[in-house]
Amino acid sequence: MSEVFKSIKDVDIHDVKWIDARFSLQESEAGRKKYKEGHIKGALYWHLDDDLSDMTKKAGRHPLPDQETLTTLFRKSGLELDDRILVYDDGGSPFAARAWWILQYGGFKNSFILKEGFGELASMGVPVSKEVSAPEQSVVVPVWDETIVAPRKFVEKTVEGETGNVLLDARSAERYRGEVEPIDPIAGRIPGALNFDWEQLKKDGSFNLDDDVGKQLSQVVKRDDEVIVYCGSGVTAAPLFAMLKQNGYEQVKLYVGSYSDWISRETIEVEKG
Fold this sequence. Notes:
Blueprint: E1 5-6, E2 17-20, H1 30-37, E3 39-40, E4 44-45, H2 67-76, E5 85-88, H3 95-106, E6 111-114, H4 118-123, E7 128-129, H5 152-159, E8 166-169, H6 173-176, E9 194-195, E10 202-203, E11 206-207, H7 211-218, E12 227-230, H8 237-246, E13 252-254, H9 258-262
Parallel strand pairs: 1-6, 2-4, 2-5, 5-6, 8-9, 8-12, 12-13
Antiparallel strand pairs: 3-7, 10-11
């Protein structure tokens, strides 16, 4: 079982690097504004649209940046592969998980998602600052982990029954069934997908690290299944990916383009109901 989520109570905060991933899908500059008003001392700010996505691509609503762009991000952030990295957002949000997943993809395997959000961390006495961090640039060479990425062609083969993988949709049951679709132009799901609403991963606004989440997950997908998680744009699927790893699922991939990329294909196949 991999430890992905950590509570600050169980962490020695000396000799760690911090990443602030606060964001709002409704107001894209809200997280950066919060960072400027105060952040964990030494934390860098990673913006969902500017740093963790390539919004110029046409591969869903939050496409994955290319490796050259991510390498630049890691280097200007002063990261080394063996750094111990703690990522936080406002707590119970998907943005720290997105940043963490990108770190995992780049080979930064000693990185973790903090269960507590910024407000709780500050109230617990973790040092806070308004000073914008300016680390010395590194020359790190990422070790890309392609095993956690599901490109669209792989998803297409999965739908055709060629890979043996299980698709797991992290959206709400209503969106999964195609009853409502507030964002994408076509309602429905990727054919054959199962459903586990990422909101079920939380309890009282924080990610629930109790055993009952693992039990709930195992009722939908088995621990030895090869799982591909997706959502609408690849963002809320990241905490589902993280929680599967936390609960002992070893073979998990993320379809970053997710449903918004799937329905951009020339031949659109969706299921409803």
